[in-house]
Amino acid sequence: MNTLEMFGLDGQVAIVTGGSGVYGQFLCQGLCEAGALVIVAGNELDTCEQFVNQLRQAGHLAVAMFLDLSNEPSINNLAKNVIEQYGRIDTLVNCAVSRIGNASLEEVTAAGWVAAENVNGTGTMLMTKAVVPHMRQQGKGSIINISSTMGVVGPYFPMYELDGIVSGIEYTYTKFGIMGMTKWLASYYGRYNIRVNSISPGGNNIKGTKDEIRSQAVIDSYLALTPMNRFADENDLKGPVVFLASDAAKYVTGQNLIVDGGYTSW
User: What is the pLDDT of residue 76?
Assistant: First the structure.
């Protein structure tokens, strides 16, 4: 197999949770461009279908499916439907995230914390649990968890405080937890040729995301902390997700690929 063939995903089926979100769209586009049939899964089916139409118009293979990560039957139904319709699941990208309960320690509530973890923690675990038996049966698979730089380092609060806001404790808890789960899954399922890795993106300032509303002071502070002096753009996650999904990374598991322009390198 030559190098170009290693990166190809022709004939493969990938599920991306939160696939119609801003980061999710980049990941779906990358996987589609590499040849995969991508299941764009999310709890806003109309939004997923609109995005899938864009992918199809560009000549890609994509299907929208409903997914409520806070509901176990919905998770199991998604995995069941993908297997029934396409016969395989080669890649799962756990990208969906809930920001409910994302607050400081003194402001967060037990109800908000639990609601967020039902998606971010329990939902991610159950989605992974639903696909693993199928990957074991086919003898291979790649699971890619989307973490964050907030799963690598603590928040730099002086930057957030320029806008009078705080980086929530629940979000940091979730992203560090995803890193730990990635290590556990990689250690256990490596024997079945199932690879499990994570990607930790840095910030972006792309239209449609929360970062777009940041003040210039926060933007300047973030860029000053980033050696490459820019935010992530719409292409920066495509290569990493295709690499981890493909045979080019067939000996890579249990790793966290940081894609942050050097933000965590200090």
Answer: 98
Contact 181, 145 (CB under 8 A): yes
Encoding tokens for residue 78? 């998604």
- Name the helix (H) or strand (E) containing 145: strand 141-146
C-beta neighbour count of 219 within 10 angstroms: 17
Cα–Cα distance for residue pair 54/33, rounded to 1 Å = 13
Closest CA to 263 of 220, 228, 216: 228
What would the two tokens of residue 126 be? 């159950």
Which two three-digit tokens encode residue 181? 């789960």
Q: Model confidence over 4-55: pLDDT tens digits? A: 899 999 999 999 999 999 899 999 999 999 999 999 999 999 999 999 999 9
> Which residue carries 């402001």 as its tokens?
107
Beta carbons of 22 and 209 less than 8 angstroms apart: yes
Interatomic CA distance for residues 235 and 29, integer angstroms: 9
- Collapsed DSSP state (helix, strand, coil) of residue 159: helix
Give the separation between CA 44 and CA 64, rounded to whole angstroms.
10
Q: What is the largest CA-CA distance in the chain?
A: 55
Q: Taking CA 201 as the corner, what is the angle to CA 226 and CA 177, rounded to the nearest 5 degrees?
A: 120
- Whether the predicted model's global pTM rises above the 0.85 cut: yes
